[in-house]
Automatic annotation (TrEMBL):
Any one GO molecular function term: protein-lysine N-methyltransferase activity
Keywords: Methyltransferase, S-adenosyl-L-methionine, Transferase
Name used for this protein in its record: SET domain-containing protein
Species, as recorded: Coptis chinensis
GO biological process, one term: methylation
PROSITE patterns according to UniProt: SET (PS50280)
Pfam families: Rubis-subs-bind
Domain SET positions: 38-286
């Protein structure tokens, strides 16, 4: 262990002692001298979220594994309770949203440094985040897909606007100049976006010490597919780690792993599945596409059953009563139920549509010819979409390899990397105000450049997965066309003989 790791470990141990004194416990039904160790322990998962929680023993589905009393939750209420100046100033700014206020309260608490009652917890918060709002222009462009670029630009503008709106309040609070910067604001709002949990009394949610060490697993396919949920008109989750208990009950078994419980006045966490001792214990924060995960949490999943790829659609396709956002290609390359129905209807001559609408809406194939037209439309449109993007899957794979080797690159390999990445690497150096010439590169790279590489890598991985979905759609559709055509051929033969 180096000195930095030793200090980190020391801070973690101080925090766990503090948490124990507050009554946070992973063994609510028995007494224990430490908040963790009976059901869970802190562990590191380099490829699955970094710091997280492991099972300290075999855990059974639905058993309670962590309880965090209300008095240990960091909320607007708890932060303003003992800070009269903060309470007075906040009361004067009624037009700010609840999340803006919570973020300001968090910065005000940070400004107290070691004197803050929350200090042991504050030391456990990440120093930086990779949420979309922190992307530079270069990293935004690296997403390549228009919809993703727009979403990032929106996130950046929203963060800037939110910051401008809270500045007068932060000045009234006389926060240190360093805490008034956009950079500090991005940190505070990303902390709130990626770590808050739903509580029934405040829509800004709460920060939940120890409970926010759980990493994410998408709600499984086994419980309920997202498409069914949307078709039935369930709302999307709000942006917090855990949602309203009522929603949880409605979704029946899909997201029953955590919530605030009035009867015990505590946030309770349950094992969502059985876990073996040593396995990472995960929490489902909600149903998100990879872009949404990137926007709110700063990561995405290699395999995400809720991922969606959208194709540009002519207006006569989406005018067919399906909401536009239900028309997409699923993570496995299959068109969504709504997209398939809409395309089948669109591929039917106008004068016959009325009579078959009910069949299309119930998900039935209309005819072999109709199905072939639909599959061909998908093949053509996926290919056109892919062809318009600046790089291919093969180039992205190569680029990811090169990005990985950039971290501690010996100078003699730089030339090869430059060749592999071409223009995009040039743009990276420009974006980070570095020289492209090999002999002017400084390795090891600065912390700022390393962070930019992390976000760039996230963007390239994101677009690569998006492209892979479309490629898989193309090959599925071609297979279907082949099968239908050969069936038609053999039935024609039977008919002739
Ligand atoms: C609530 S925190 C979870 C604990 C966090 N790893 C920590 O050290 O504090 C949420 C953050 O953890 C990371 N994370 C959670 N689940 C992840 C996953 N499956 N893959 C990658 N990163 C993940 C993301 O950075 C996310 O913003």
């Amino acid at each position: 262990m180096d000195t930095v790791q030793e200090e980190e470990e020391e801070r973690l141990q101080t925090f766990l002692k503090w948490a124990t004194n507050l009554g946070i416990t992973d063994s609510p039904n028995s007494s224990s001298s430490s908040c963790l160790g009976q059901s869970l322990y802190v562990s590191h998962f380099p490829d699955a979220g970094g710091r997280g929680l492991s099972a300290a023993r075999d855990l059974r589905k639905n058993e309670v594994i962590l309880r965090v009393p209300k008095s240990a939750l960091l909320t607007r209420e708890s932060l303003t309770a003992n800070d009269h100046k903060l309470t007075r100033c906040v009361q004067r700014h009624t037009r700010l949203s609840s999340t803006q206020i919570l973020s300001v309260c968090l910065l005000a608490e940070m400004s107290k440094g070691k004197t803050s009652w929350w200090y042991p917890y504050l030391t456990q918060l990440p120093r930086h985040y990779d949420t979309l709002a922190s992307f530079t222009e270069f990293e935004t462009r690296a997403l390549q897909v228009d919809g993703a670029i727009w979403a990032t630009e929106r996130a950046i503008s929203k963060a800037e606007l939110d910051w401008e709106q809270v500045l007068p309040l932060m000045r009234e609070l006389e926060l240190r100049p360093q805490l008034l910067t956009l950079k500090s604001w991005l940190w505070a709002s990303a902390t709130v976006s990626s770590r808050t949990m739903h509580v029934p009394w405040d829509d800004a949610g709460c920060l939940c010490p120890v409970g926010d060490f759980f990493n994410y697993a998408a709600p499984g396919e086994d419980s309920c597919c997202s498409e069914d949920v949307e078709t039935l008109g369930y709302p999307m989750q709000n942006n917090s780690l855990c949602q309203d208990k009522e929603d949880v009950k409605q979704l029946d078994g899909r997201l029953t792993d955590a919530g605030f419980e009035e009867d015990v006045d505590a946030y309770c966490f349950y094992a969502r599945v059985d876990y073996w001792k040593g396995e990472q214990v995960l929490l489902s924060y909600g149903t998100y596409t990879n872009l949404e995960l990137l926007e709110h949490y700063g990561f995405h999943l290699n395999v995400n059953p809720n991922e969606k790829a959208f194709l540009p659609l002519e207006s006569d396709i989406h005018s067919n009563s399906w909401p536009k956002d239900s028309l997409y290609i699923q993570w496995d390359g299959r068109p969504s139920f709504a997209l398939l129905s809409a395309l089948r209807l669109w591929a039917t001559p106008q004068n016959q549509r009325k009579s078959i609408t009910h069949l299309a809406y119930s998900g039935l194939q209309l005819s072999a010819e109709n199905e072939i037209v639909v599959m061909k439309w998908l093949v053509t449109n996926c290919n056109t979409f892919l062809d318009r993007l600046p790089s291919s899957i093969e180039q992205d794979v190569l680029l990811l390899d090169s990005i990985d080797s950039m971290y501690d690159c010996p100078v003699h390999e730089v030339e090869q990397i430059l060749l592999a990445c071409g223009d995009e690497l040039g743009a990276f150096f420009e974006g980070n105000k570095m020289q492209k010439k090999c002999n002017a590169l400084k390795f090891p790279l600065s912390m700022k450049a390393r962070r930019s590489i992390e976000r760039w890598k996230l963007a390239v991985q994101w677009r690569l997965r998006y492209k892979q979905i479309l490629v898989s759609c193309v090959s599925d559709c071609e297979e279907i066309i082949k099968n239908i055509s050969s069936q038609n051929l053999s039935s024609e033969k039977t008919y002739r003989t």
